[in-house]
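To fix ideas, we reproduce below one chain and its tokenised fold.
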Amino acid sequence: MPRSAIINVMVQAAMKAGRSLARDFGEVQNLQVSLKGPGDYVSQADRRAEEIIHTELSRARPGYSFLMEERGAVEGDDPQHRWLVDPLDGTTNFLHGIPIFSVSIALERQGTLVAGVIYNPAMDELYTAERGGGAFLNDRRMRVAARRDLSDCVIGTGIPHLGRGHHGRALLDLRNVMGESAGIRRLGSAALDLAYVAAGRMDGFWEEALSSWDMAAGILMVREAGGFATDRNGGQDMFGTGSVVAGNELIHRSLLKALQKPVS
């Protein structure tokens, strides 16, 4: 499948950062047995990957702005274009030697998501999407799953940890969706969760307290794979609310309904 010039630029940056993370991941697995632990090393790995991405994208598209997990906002000369970068989504997995983590890069043009790349270097899985051009996993077209009933579905989510998110609300959401679905999965990387929905591996996904770089590329992938992605209110303010709900048309609607149940 021929890729556009912009996707090629993003893929090159993501895979170069991914190779760096893969090397560091091997070291983290060794550091797991040490008394100090791998926490500091993971922070360095994160920053190294972000620096690689920033360098590669800046060289290819000088002037574009950035919004990155580590550096935050970096204003460029071109106000129409902005990269949203998460150099290591799934840091806790990485820290514990679990091979479910990813590099996520999205491009906005005048506030609209137009391209996205997610790469899991541990599994060598590359997800790409371009507005109007479809979504692909290692160059094979992706489509969201076609299941119609929530009771038949496996749904992904994120669970807030210590010091993060509203635990009571998350437990209520879990109760409501558990009671209507075939199973719930918590992978630990929102970018990969959304990519899995686009690939039909999971039927739906919801999470709160996300940053824009966590979900930008994945939102575009779900939509280009024929699915729906909104905030938990059914609107388009995912970045403002920090929430996302995704699935095919029917499952997306069922998930929204389950998440909006009143507290009993």
